[in-house]
């Protein structure tokens, strides 16, 4: 038995009934980890722990992913939570952006593109799109409450109310009011960020009608998240659904202990993250490590706090608020977190939307196939009047061989 296993067993014994339940839940969750764990086990036979640790350090020091920064700002949510955002302004003085300006043509500086990130990520998950659009059009990137550089959710920390997608929609409105007080906006959301945009549309239809010029939904869902199988057989997913909410509550209550265990099993979690984030076999190891860092940086109590919000998410009716707007609906065809069928359902409710299914792509499609995603976003910006036609986005950090997208809708 490993030292980590001994510590875990001792924790279960010391913790009493809640930890016995957590142990049972862990067994069920083990079904999810089986494929990744097998890969990790094989790796351990050939690569020592010290070498793996050294490789991670090298990747961290060599990679610049997530290093782009803009002008910082802070919005305040309706419960007092401080929401951190950054603004990238258009380049008015030439310089490094001149080549991109030639690719994009003259831009309309009045339009601001606002990017909302997904669960357990941060604004840095848009790194490649940020690099491509930098200096070309005004962009705002923000961290959802309790994620990235934003403050811990005040209502949640004080135990007043749980996180909800509706709250995230109100948070986005606070960011828009602070960072984009006037002028047209384009909204882009990945996963939970797309749900956040839907909540904004549900609660602020006048704002959408008056200010929003286009919307991009990337790897997201309008509802029925409780039906997602995560690539598991029926028996496994049913077991996980029964026990996961309870075990997450227990883990959130013992966050310090769980974080120690999380660090001790870093290799297993890295395998899980790669399995559920990407589908390509040739993803750049630096990009895979970047995704790992983003997810690892989300505290376990925040992971536990946000998870229940997805079961109640249902914003299909809110999509009607976007009728008549240019809309991009894009997903990886091997996404096991928000399967591509959910994007097809969104497109079915918005018949004029452009539906793009990216072959050989998983949940973090904007990091896995960045050029393709940026291309489609650039076309959306043309339709929204943010940049002129003839946009041709170049190579801004390929992380795998680029596939051809399948278009529908």
TrEMBL record:
Q: Name one Pfam family in it.
A: Abhydrolase_1
| Keyword annotations from UniProtKB, A to Z | Hydrolase
Transmembrane stretches, by residue range? none
One GO MF term on file is: hydrolase activity
Q: Where is the AB hydrolase-1 domain?
A: 112-370
Q: Which InterPro entries match?
A: AB_hydrolase, AB_hydrolase_1, AB_hydrolase_fold
Fetch the Gene3D superfamilies from UniProt. alpha/beta hydrolase
The name of this protein is Alpha/beta hydrolase
* Taxonomic source organism: Streptomyces physcomitrii
